[in-house]
Amino acid sequence: MGLVVQKYGGSSVADAEGIKRVAKRIVEAKKNGHQVVAVVSAMGDTTDELIDLAEQVSPMPAGRELDMLLTAGERISMALLAMAIKNLGHSAQSFTGSQAGVITDSVHNKARIIDVTPGRIRDSLDEGNIAIVAGFQGVSQDTKDITTLGRGGSDTTAVALAAALDAEVCEIYTDVDGVFTADPRVVKKARKIDWISFEDMLELAASGSKVLLHRCVEYARRYNIPIHVRSSFSGLQGTWVSSEPIQQGDKKVEQAIISGVAHDTSEAKITVVGVPDKPGEAASIFRTIADAEINIDMVVQNVSAAATGLTDISFTLPKTEGRKAIDALEKNKGGIGFDSLRYDDQIGKISLVGAGMKTNPGVTADFFTALSDAGVNIELISTSEIRISVVTRADDVPEAVRAVHTAFGLDSDSDEAVVYGGTGR
Predict the structure, then answer these.
(1) Is 38 helix (H, G, I), strand (E, B) or coil?
(2) Predicted pLDDT at 420
(3) Is 47 flagged in the annotation as binding?
(4) Which of 35, 90, 141, 410 could form a disulfide with 181 if both were Cys (CB 3.0 to 4.6 A apart)?
């Protein structure tokens, strides 16, 4: 039996009973002959509570000190889990991200992993221990400061360790039974997917699906690490994410034409009004945004008015970056030469994802017909070979997702999907 990396989210280790249940599952894998490395998130809402506490003390907490504070949550989880495993008669050692060899850049609150040197983890496994690693954190290569990896950081930690340790699989345990064709909290008849390719999962993750984060899937694809998304609250088979279809019985699972419908209500839209329609203007706008270290998503430029030679450029970005983007553009208004800015944070994005759509004519027409029949107005459109995304009013998102899901025959005929912990993570 090979080495297995397991990751448990906050809902799985939310309380003492949850930690004991996770400990039993880890010990079971150990009894089955696997070497086991378990990566854990902070308990329940601990990270959010620590952020709230920091903001009560300081309206703008320093990034370095915030990272020092936030990493405490995972350290609590890892120590308690190691204790629970030892109580079941098995040896376990807990490690912080830095002790596990997770090396990052020096950007606080959203560091990226540069390298993983898991020497201490290998030694612990060779001694017969189960290794418990605090997710979401590492140590800066340059400053040697503690860093955190941002949203979905524990998933990324798990996949990075799986790659460094040459694990046979990375199991991501959450509070749903796998990856579904839509968010089961919005679409009760969402269907669990048995297998999905890295490419389709990347598109779903980038479009708002919260079961797996984009960075985690990107890392897994780069190192070809199969991911098995499962629930820690049930023993059901989950969803496999890999480069090749899984084998079920005597046949491989076929690639679906449409993998799923994702949505995202965490974005805002900025429209730059009255931009001179000449070379270099769009570059100036997006260079300003890039220099402010803001990631953008969808971009649409209108046809310029013949009478004025001016156009409007709209783009979407995370709501949390909205104020920073507005300030950066206003500061550079003279250099760009636009008339005004419009900001709208009451939008939502709906995305249809599937590798099969590039060889199946009519998918785009069916998508827009479903939205039209549901009375949903479209504000922006963006496409790739395997994705169609639109921006609508935020209030229209739930109905739009359900309409598109039904229109493409994705509704399940069986029981409703279960979200055990209530969060979908």
Answers:
(1) strand
(2) 67
(3) yes
(4) 410
pLDDT tens-digit readout, 163-202: 999 999 999 998 889 999 999 889 999 999 999 999 999 9
Decide: residue 21, CB within 10 A, 0-12 exposed, 13-18 middle, 19+ buried: middle
| Residue 175 labelled as part of a binding site | yes
What b/e sequence results for 382-420 when a residue is b if at least 16 CB atoms lie within 10 Å of its CB, and e otherwise? Answer: beeebbbbbbbebebbbebbbbbbebbebbbeeeebebb
Measured from the Cβ of residue 323, the count of other Cβ atoms closer than 10 Å reads 11
Residue 414 clears pLDDT 90, i.e. is over it: no
- pTM comes to 0.87
74 annotated ligand binder: yes
Residue 210 marked ligand-binding: yes
- Say whether 189 counts as a known binding-site residue: no
- List residues bridging with 244 in a β-sheet: none
27-48: average pLDDT: 95
**Residue 108: closest CA among 153, 73, 169, 76:** 153
> Residue 107 and residue 145: Cα distance in Å, rounded?
10
Kindly state the tokens that stand for 209: 């699906």
Residue-wise pLDDT for 77-113, tens only, equals 999 999 999 999 999 999 999 999 999 999 999 899 9
The residue length of the chain stands at 425
The structural domains of the chain, ordered by start, are: 3-252 (3.40.1160.10)
Is there a binding annotation on residue 9? yes
Longest dimension (CA), the chain: 80
